[in-house]
Amino acid sequence: MKKSFLVLLLLILTTVIFRLQSQVLDPVDWEFSYEQTGNNHVDLIFMARIEDNWHLYSQDLPEGGPIPTSFTFIASDNYTRAGDVKEITRPEVKHDPSFDLDLKMFSHEAEFRQTVMIMAEGAFSLSGTIEYMTCDDQRCLPPTEEEFTFTLGGSEGVIDQPSEGQPLRTAPQTLTVDSDDKPVSTIDDAVVESIPSTGESRSLWLFFLISFLAGLGAILTPCVYPMVPMTITFFMRGSENRIRAILKGLVFGISVILIYTLIGVIVALTSAGADVASQLSTHWIPNIIFFLLFMVFAASFLGMFELILPGNWVNSADKQADKGGYIGAFFMALTLVLVSFSCTGPIVGAILVESAGGLAFKPILGMFGFSFAFALPFTLLSIFPSWLKGLPKSGGWMNSVKVVLGFIVLAFGFKFLSTIDQTYHLNILSREVYLSLWIVIFTMMGFYLLGKLRLANDSVLPHISVPRLILAIITFSFVVYLVPGLFGAPLTGISALIPPKSSQSFDLTYTIPAIPAGQDNMSLPGTGNCGPAKYSDFLHLPWGLPGYFDYEEGMACAKKEGKPVFLDFKGHACSNCKEMEAKVWSDPDVLRRLRENYVIIALYVDDRTKLPENEWITSSFDGKEKRTIGKKNMDLQITRFNTNTQPYYVLVDHEGYPLVPPRGHDLNVQRFVEWLDEGVRRFEE
């Protein structure tokens, strides 16, 4: 009896664990209510309760990103909408590296409101749907639709109960209302905005480090380096008090930090809000301006002309510095900032442009990191003036530093033209044209470092130093790394700095994987293992892999070929799917196994292409009719595998039964290879 009880208990626990691991995720719970505002006006309230670690996307997203939240209302003569749906809860702004975009999203909860004016005298129903998309750090769910119905007008005006089979939505908690009758979010917006994600924190630290290194590099330019001993002499001048000299040095360093950080504060205030940041990042006018500025700065660095600020600015600051004391130390710092502008301007400009498209705090952080490194040597040398003897003497090497910076600024300036080309689909600055420009620029930089190329302000170079030789080797190695990109190599190390591979018109990489004998059609676009694939005119697999986009067609081919099936549930807006394909599928061992051992069926769960009426299905899961490719594929994933997350990979036999446990987002290539091998072994048993 005890053994039977234990066996029964074990079966129950196993079933529960399996259900927990493969449940259909629904991390957002919607609650509907309304609020009378007078004069026949009603605020419809849509409250989204979001599970921990998940986020809901805003209505306001840039093109090329995930699917935004949207509200659809069934038109009726019983009411009119006053404006659009408003987001009451302030969204967070986070950078998504897969889309390379700053996206608005909500965590924990989100409140939306739609004001309507009631036109009918009696009670009526107001219905519609909400379409939304949710993600966490590991996976994204496909777009989901939530139906809503309000019963308005009449004497009661209560919310209609959800239809049978739908989860019950309870009324939200009472909202706090301020003196202006404006609803206040139940979560403090400032608190929500101040909690960055782990990835975002790493990104900010990296940005700070780059800004710090840029500040150290600026010290080596000919506008700044000669001023180091002059500035330290100023601290020691007319004073035998060592402590006073140190304090003046500290005031000088803090003043430099404050001046540059103030610039960051101004940029943060003027670019506050994702709308302004998005305009700076994608609109053609600011990108043209930034491109021209970088070209001017590059020309100045390369010796074409000298950029200087108005002389009266520098003279006024210098006169105040001559007065001495702590006020004099501040104006000495201001003089340094003004005099060094021709060398530091491009560096500061690059940091500010990069930061303006991100969080409001980012320009301040960037300027603080730059100025902290920039002021550090002056402050340390004011405390330890004997270190001056160990500094290298000024000379022609400083102009070389400036010229090298000029080449780098010139190369990075084309990024702004690329942004315009990609955003407006001009198809002028393609990936290979962009890489060609970089190859030429950095090749010339390498020859310059070797002394084979001399510019206007360069001194004669009788021989090259070891550090200069090492820099030349690094530069030419980078050029060699760029060359395969002309033929379609992914160049994953710098993919964020160059146009996407989709803009490449000449791509040979699909011929790299080995093709088994007798299956030459596998590398041709639009073909599967058994011939042309349905929907291949607008759906594609990466890396030239053959495959199908229709479940029935792919299964028929697998039976004909006698191979197991690799089911790939994916989405156009699934960033983790793209990451898996770029970092795992691209591995030669993975590509070979996918190509030779499996028939791939890629099922897009968010594709909105309408199906012919004879291909519509009625779901056994929710009883609804599925009329698009995406909805049909999503229903297949839910009904067969009881989950709705992507990416979701399943190895199945010809009857559709899993051979091994399915897999999701996992960047470990070796585990993926072993999983593919295990699937083949199980299939052949």
Task: Give me the secondary-structure topology.
Blueprint: H1 2-21, E1 28-38, E2 41-50, E3 55-57, E4 70-73, E5 79-81, E6 86-87, E7 92-96, E8 101-107, E9 109-118, E10 124-132, E11 134-135, E12 144-152, E13 176-177, E14 183-184, H2 189-193, H3 198-219, H4 227-236, H5 242-270, H6 274-282, H7 284-301, H8 311-321, H9 325-339, H10 341-356, H11 362-383, H12 396-423, H13 431-449, H14 466-482, E15 527-528, E16 531-532, H15 551-561, E17 565-570, H16 575-585, H17 588-597, E18 599-604, E19 617-618, E20 625-626, H18 629-641, E21 648-652, H19 669-684
Parallel strand pairs: 17-18
Antiparallel strand pairs: 1-2, 2-9, 3-8, 3-11, 4-10, 5-9, 6-9, 7-8, 10-12, 13-14, 15-16, 17-21, 19-20
Helix pairs in contact: 3-10, 3-11, 4-11, 5-9, 5-11, 6-7, 7-10, 7-12, 8-9, 10-11, 12-13, 13-14, 17-19
Keywords:
685 residues; alpha+beta; Immunoglobulin-like; 4 domains; five-stranded antiparallel sheet; four-stranded antiparallel sheet; 19 helices; 15% strand; globular; disordered N terminus
Structure summarized in a few sentences:
By secondary structure, this protein is of the alpha+beta class.
Describe this structure in words.
This protein is 44% helix and 15% strand. The two termini are 37 Å apart. The protein has four domains: 152 residues, Thiol:disulfide interchange protein DsbD, N-terminal domain (Immunoglobulin-like), CATH 2.60.40; 196 residues, no CATH class; 108 residues, no CATH class; 171 residues, Glutaredoxin (3-Layer(aba) Sandwich), CATH 3.40.30. It is an alpha+beta fold and 685 residues long. β13 and β14 form a beta hairpin. The chain is globular, with a radius of gyration of 31 Å. The strands form seven sheets. Strands 1, 2, 5, 6 and 9 form a five-stranded antiparallel beta sheet that branches. Strands 7-8-3-11 form a four-stranded antiparallel beta sheet, with no helix packed on it. A three-stranded antiparallel beta sheet has the order 4-10-12, with no helix packed on it.
